[in-house]
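Re-running AAA family ATPase to confirm reproducibility after the cluster update. Everything else is unchanged from the original entry.
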Amino acid sequence: MYISKIEIKNYKNFKANTIEFNEGLNVIIGHNNAGKSNLLRAMALIFNPSVKKNLSIDDFNKQLTLDELKNQPPSINVSITLSQEKEENLMGDDLVVVSQWLTKLEEPYEAKIHYEFCLPLKHQDEYEQKLSTATSVIDAWEIIDRNFLRFYTYKIYGGNLENQISVDSEYMKKFDFQFLDAIRDVERDMFSGKNTLLKNVLDFFMDYNIKSNQALNEAEKEQQIKDEKKKFEDQAKVLMDSLNQRMLEGKKQILSYSKDIGASFDNAEPNFAGGITDVELYSALKLIVEHHDGIQLPITHNGLGYNNLIFMSLLLAKMQVNASETYLGSNSKVFPMLVIEEPEAHLHPSMQRQLLNFLKQNLKANKVRQIFVTTHSTHITGALDLDELICLYKANNETRASYPSKVFEGNEESKKYVQRFLDATKSNMLFAEKIILVEGLAEQLLMSTFAEYVGKSLEDNHIAVINVGGKYFDHFLKLFNTNNPAAIKRKVVCITDRDPMRKELSSEGATYTKCYPFELNAEVDKYEYKTSKQDIVYSPNIKFYFQDELQGKTLEYDLVRFNPMLEMLVTGSMSNKEEIKALMKLFQEGKSIDEFYSRLSKSKENTRIIDALKQEVLNWSDEDKKIALIAARYLNSVGKGVNALELANVLQENLAKRGSEDFVEFVVPDYIQEDIEWVCEN
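Result of re-run:
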């Protein structure tokens, strides 16, 4: 069986939440304070015997209203559902452990375990009387803490909660809950044989060549191990005899003091004797780093990242020990679970992927039943299947859970697309509180700078800018379209170009090609025209922003459309720099449109621009035509990637001059300004 679901009520940031789990690997992601660690702590209340079960006042969910607190004492409830695996034949130990907790008696079987922390009924009347005097939520919690928390008790039940069947502690010991928290001192916890973890592992794997020999039966294995122990004890006796021989004269001096002080009596006196067993010698063993040249160094000379990996491997080895019925008999574990907080701590990105692969291999080898991981690492999420991800987030001050794979049910094409492109950069969208999706590198590089010109900060608002590499928004928006209850509710902005296009009507099989805004609908008898629009209806948390439908084209085009005299936009990598600057100067001086036409260099594309602007059907002012000409010429002269990087640097340097005479005014295109202001709203 496996943990398929957890229900949490009134515990820390969880008011009433149900979170579903997978059979194998469960990676829980989310921004800070989303509740990832609290989710693991809720599980530990049931499965970890070393966790304190009596809670404090701060462990309650503080979103309860005053009326709710007055009506009844607050309680904390955690329910775990255990389900039969898809290909599991529920027999033997599994069935024995959960048999009394079954809530579904036909396949697939289900069982439940409940943790409850509550005020006993005998204090109910006194509670209602004292709480009736509370005038605020803060006052109510103080009364509960001061007068009633000491009476609170916890219980762990199995099966249907209303039956209140207490769970046998012997059965709970069958769950092996190995927890590695985010704040850990692995050097303290593992590098000496005096430590229980390493000692248990060493004891289990001692004589492993015999224990794992399939050609021997159990009696033969036991006899060979006994022979090895006897052989060791004989060798140890030689050492002890040698030690006693070296101490012969010194011992006489030591013992003479005991005789003088009167410690010898009744024909008896102190002496030294003893032996060494293999188990006692474990404490002398320490992990080391041994290089190829034979040089040995303490394990503490490793970096923290390597030592964390070693510690995790020892934890998995310990779980193998705990699950061995041959070694532990009836004390062996049935449900091994590995729980890791932030495994990326101290690990290089490539090592994070290596760790992930290692954990998956242990799952396949059945060395662990389930693995639960919390992470902030985009490198880990970028290497996962969507099915393995669980996203915790907050919306309207409430904790919610989302399952990225479920939003794609019935749409495998989009799921495969997102799975393929959800790398370390793009998976940042799963962590951010708000998201701006853009279709190209230029917007990605410039958006943060644009926000500063608007007086906003994308970083302060926890906004991620994600380049989806084209007009592929719909694939990604399935993750956030809250018309699907499995989606993540976050503000999402999509910035996309109008990209006016046309195709010839007379040419069979003709395809759409790019055109200028001033060419739109100019020759309807010859061309069919279109521009990009939002065709799909999404939930209100998603908005699209385009350039102007009649005069917009692309980002680069609109940069000049809103700043037709700004020579700062002409960067070093562009072609036709002097010509564009000359056109900007003509605009500043108010020259006629004909002077613009005459200033253009001779080319087929420039002739096309002039002819289109001269068409009588174009009902534009000369001012609009001049701006469109400069914008078209600018667009045709940039290399998008390099130009965007240069432009970002130039605009950033200009920002540093804000407040001085050297600062140059730059107008952010209106559609970008609107999207930044909307996404930055609370």
